[in-house]
Design goal:
The structure is a homodimer of 117-residue chains.
Chain A: H1 18-26, H2 31-37, H3 45-51, H4 57-69, E1 73-75, E2 79-81, H5 83-92, H6 94-107
Antiparallel strand pairs in A: 1-2
Chain A binds a DNA duplex (30 and 30 nucleotides) through helix 4.
DNA sequence: AGCATATGCTACGCTTTATGTAGCACGTCA
DNA sequence: TGACGTGCTACATAAAGCGTAGCATATGCT
């Protein structure tokens, strides 16, 4: 499969709008996870694989190729986020907070954040 | 397929950590896109479908079920983001800016943000 | 009433994507 | 030499996604 690129049609959008290319890229399995696992250190292929619950090397390699292609990840003595990759990470980090709130909300529901009936 | 939930094992992680459930949920095709398309107005099923480049109704319905299940989307006279859904959107909105920078970077590469050769 | 149109949604057959296991070629260090 | 770790690929199987068709209900019009 091809790596989504801004300025080109992608799966689900022919406009070439950059955001569509990005949503296509991030909406692939393991992509978000890989970025997440690289959040605070470079990892070798196998270390990364084990952090990602032993994803098949086929997939990991494909995702890494896409992420390198997009300039999000670099492979210089292990895999690490690039400058732009770190910027992208900034948008992903708050998800942890949201997820924790999500879990709390499920434990004691209907507590303010839900919609009124 | 089942909707990922915090506190339960999900695809690619058995720990039940909320962030893993969220990354599983968002890493499915069309999920990010649906949230994105609902960013500033409620849409009917068919309107949403047409915004998503005529995604198959099978998929849209499945994703909507997952998003409703997760409390991100509500279906009251069309589909719309809930309170938590809007909070989640806040993490996704900056992606547009990132994507635009991405596109600009590709137009004139090696301009500071790339890695040095 | 009769008819057109719009809605949300499901069935079903086919294609694309992901998974799991095995293993290769290379490098390092004893 | 041989035991290990590395990044990566092949290939068969399973899962997810896709496209088209169409149903049941609701609303509005004449």
């Amino acid at each position: 499969m091809t790596t989504p690129k801004p300025g080109h049609p992608v799966r689900g959008s022919t406009t070439g709008r950059p955001i569509m290319a990005l949503l296509d890229l991030l909406g692939r399995r393991w992509t978000l996870r890989v970025i997440w696992e690289l959040r605070d250190e470079a990892l070798t292929f196998r270390a990364l694989r084990s952090r990602c619950d032993d994803v098949s090397p086929t997939m990991l390699n494909r995702r890494l190729a896409e992420l390198r292609d997009a300039g999000i990840v670099a492979a210089e003595g292990g895999y690490a986020l690039t400058g732009p990759g770190l910027e992208l990470l900034q948008a992903i980090l708050p998800l942890q907070r949201w997820a924790d709130d999500w879990a709390a909300r499920r434990d004691r529901p209907a507590a303010g954040s839900g919609r009124a009936p």
